[in-house]
Amino acid sequence: LYAFLINWIIGDLTNxxxxxxxxxxxxxxxxxxxxxxxxxxxFVQFRLYSPKDKQxxxxxxxxxxxxxxxxxxxxIHPLAMLLTLALALGTRAxxxxxxxxxxxxxxxxxxxxxGWMLGWVSGVxxxxxxxxxxxxxxxxxxxxxxxxxxxxxxxxxxxxYALSIALTATTWDLIWPQIPWIVGSAGVLGLDVAIGYQYxxxxxxNRELKAxxxx
Length: 215
Hints:
By secondary structure, the protein is mainly alpha-helical. Helix content is 72%, strand content 0%. It contains eight helices and no strands. The longest helix has 31 residues, at 110-140.
């Protein structure tokens, strides 16, 4: 659980910093800022609600992603998506990242490369967080510690996020600076689908086992 949360926080922070440095789309910057604020709330919830020992240390195996927060998640995320859409409608085409290989007026500076590498750190951490969750599900063979609603929303969000980049960056000079963010969104879609499959697969197995025990 800690690994998932830490991967997510590092991914969101580097996502925000990298997007700001390279001058990414306003929707990317707004989304990254929202993710960081959500991380703060998640971490506070984790510290407040996780079972602790007498010394105040969080016990292993505690659950941060349980579906008890499903209603709240479904209420907050659409609001953020509407705000993002409103910001996107007010964005001009000139907001597309201007740093390109062929533009002599905007040379590739060291600041750009720092932002680009931060984008890669973000993408790798997003992928790592999913891999950690998949391995955890395999070990426990139980979906009880998984919020399926969160991953369904993540699939929708990452799909539209990747499409927004693809529709605005139409040439290679505009695409390659965005590759780390494409990896961080489109790259985790398959992993999120795998997590969704695990949820329904292990839920079915657990229901069948419970039915057998009752008999």
